[in-house]
Amino acid sequence: MKTLLFAAAVALSALAIGAPAQAAGCLKGAAVGGVAGHVAGHGVLGAAAGCAVGRHEANKSARQQAQQQPAQNTNAPQQQ
What we know:
The chain has 80 residues and is mainly alpha-helical. It has a domain at 24-69. It contains three helices and no strands. Helix 2 (26-40) packs antiparallel against helix 3 (43-74).
């Protein structure tokens, strides 16, 4: 079991090193997931899941902001 957890930690580390600019949401999610996982006895798995959820939420938030921004610009008065 420890070998599986170690392999998961190494794989997640490799992903994090490969894309440091994509860390939005991952750190906070990993911290929360790590604490919750530690309470359940699986800290590394909780951190990995928390990172994935944090990234998903950050991407969803970024998409919503990108969709709202053009809509706000079209309502602006035209200056000529």
